[in-house]
Amino acid sequence: MMVRQTIRRQVREARRQLSHAQQASAALRVVQHVAQDAYLADANKVALYLANDGELDPQPLIDWYWARNTQVYLPVLHPFSTGHLLFLRYTPNTTMTHNRFGIREPKLDIRLLIPKNELDVIYTPLVAFDARGNRMGMGGGFYDRTLSAWQQGTGPRPVGLAHNCQQLAAIAIDHWGIPLPELITPDQHWRF
């Protein structure tokens, strides 16, 4: 457990050290990768996230999808089911709030909710990844729970988003960990 905490701390620090220009360039290069993938480019309903703690910023990708009239959704901490996420529609006019982790999310409004199985793609943040598609998150298991349906053959296609500096040689995953089928960094669109 201590090793995982050390890795999380080191990788989070590495991504926080990226300059504003490096962050902006990385985000735009990810949009280029998505635009070149027919499935991702033509998706109708996608879930993204708002960058926190040096994560790869998906805002240019959100803007790109909005320009294509794609419906964009953001994760919201489930108010009753601890450790689970809901997905709410996100537009430039969405009322936002901060969750218990200090992360911005749409204010809970049942009218904006979409069942996760109706999403085409869920773009996931992560702390680290390896060349086999294993991902290390923040340790809460939110995305592992969310992606468990996909692992069983149903649900939206998960795609990780990360900076190049977040790649590790290997990640030991727990039995509940959900490997990603693909991941996009500024330099590469990985398919596992």
TrEMBL record:
Gene3D superfamilies recorded: NagB/RpiA/CoA transferase-like (3.40.50.10420)
Keyword Ligase among UniProt keywords: yes
The protein's required cofactors: Mg(2+)
EC numbers: 6.3.3.2
EC class name: ligase
Family annotation (InterPro entries): FTHF_cligase, FTHF_cligase-like_sf, NagB/RpiA_transferase-like
UniProt keyword list: ATP-binding, Ligase, Magnesium, Metal-binding, Nucleotide-binding
Listed GO MF terms: 5-formyltetrahydrofolate cyclo-ligase activity
Alphabetical list of Pfam families matching this protein: 5-FTHF_cyc-lig
Catalytic activity, reaction form: (6S)-5-formyl-5,6,7,8-tetrahydrofolate + ATP = (6R)-5,10-methenyltetrahydrofolate + ADP + phosphate
Listed NCBIfam families: MTHFS_bact
Similarity remark: Belongs to the 5-formyltetrahydrofolate cyclo-ligase family.
Record-given protein name: 5-formyltetrahydrofolate cyclo-ligase
